[in-house]
Fold this sequence. Notes:
By secondary structure, the protein is an alpha/beta fold.
Amino acid sequence: MSGQDGSYRDLHRPLYTAEVLANALNSGGSRPLLHIQGVATLTVAQVRDATSQFVQTLASLGVGKGSRVAMIAPNRPECLHVTHALQLLSAIYVPLHPLAGLSDHLHVIRDAELDILVFDAERFAARATEITADIAGIRLLALGESPLADDIFRLADSFTPGRLAPAPEGEHDILRLGYSGGTTGKPKAIPSCARTGAYTGQLMQSTWEWPNPPIILTCAPLTHAGGAMFMPALLRGGTLLVMNGFEPVKVMQAIAAHRINCMLMVPTMIYALLDCPRLGEFDLSSLETVFYGASAISPARLREAIQRIGPVFAQFYGQAEAPMAITYFSKADHDVNDLTRLASCGKPSPYIRVELMDADCKPVAEGEPGEICVQGPLVMDGYRDPALTVEAFRGGWLHTGDVAVRDSEGFLRIVDRTKDMIVSGGFNIYPREIEDIIGEHAAVSQVAVIGVQHPKWGEAVTAIVVLKPDQSVDQVELIAQVAERKGSFQAPKSVIFVDAIPQTPVGKPDKKALRVQFVRRRWHERA
């Protein structure tokens, strides 16, 4: 039923993220909300006023529904002001990771058909120059004074702050055009619509374990995952402390000084804390929840983290196509006496549908490997490339590309990406399982397992290992450790010791780079 004059049109209309953001910021108040370490501390009211000025600035430049705007900057308050302003204008935000290379930036800008690039005048003027030399017609806006572009601060200062009024938006409106990490090829465009963004936020708020109130520390780029911590701080009466980059000692100093009770980390950050010789010097007792995700974690190192830092770890699992909330692994479910349990990514969210499917899109039996497939409001509408969408939505499910097994209690354990599976001697081998076994050795800090072309086996299982400081182990010992547990056919043909494993800009081990690095390696037959 609807009013004849259309008066019922908005009666049951859901609120999307921009409207929730506006409502919360419009409440104002002097509560400290955003602290950029060494730069500024802003109250709720100050964040609202700055966001309002950026909304008016961008609107005066013609930015509106469907405009495409990117930003490249270190962590600073304006990263959030710009992205929030774009949300309120129903424009499309295109993240550019500050650690990515020029070729990836150029690919994203061309593919996204960017209208405006906002850049940090001090840190990224050289990159902006390189971009404009290659791509004509793109408009630049500078965060700070620059001969290349107008200073967005000067423009914003000419506007009077006011209440935030988000532009109307529908559930299928594209608000973010993200790009995959490119670990298996060129980054592909992944549009995120208003429905997906709002549902992700609702699942994070309802199923994640937040301290009350949360005092959150993030080191991740605000232009990417770090920005996801802002809304929980805003809506739960908390504070967000932002650092530029991750340095173990500085992070631990900040935790102790500000009594941080909540963090978001990737596994490599956790490893760095554990391997820091000064870990025991700092009071980390304020920590209540450390959310971790983005890539697989070593169960042995996770157990070490729980034993040394505390039972504060909770895992989230998702992907850009269904962000952050496909499964959740609660703090209480982390059993330090069960490494198989610690290899889990938790249980599926009760608010979406999750199945493990075989190649024919049929559910697999308990304990059998199957691809994680998802349905529900969390799932994207589709890729920009229709062919990719058809492939991803086979059988009416989102196919994540992650292979997992489900145990009798409903926990999922990801055994690997379908594209990372190694076929050696006719056998399917999942690198994640080999990594977990090698990672149990007391001398191992990090490990990545890849398949390298081999004339006899097709692919040879190869382990790339980073040792803990002042530790050593012979490759024969590590190979034997795997052979004893998984059989000789799954044991690495070689173990290569390195100082560091390359990471993608979002903190995942870059197996594509490893394959390129070791593709020319010559293998010798073993007796």
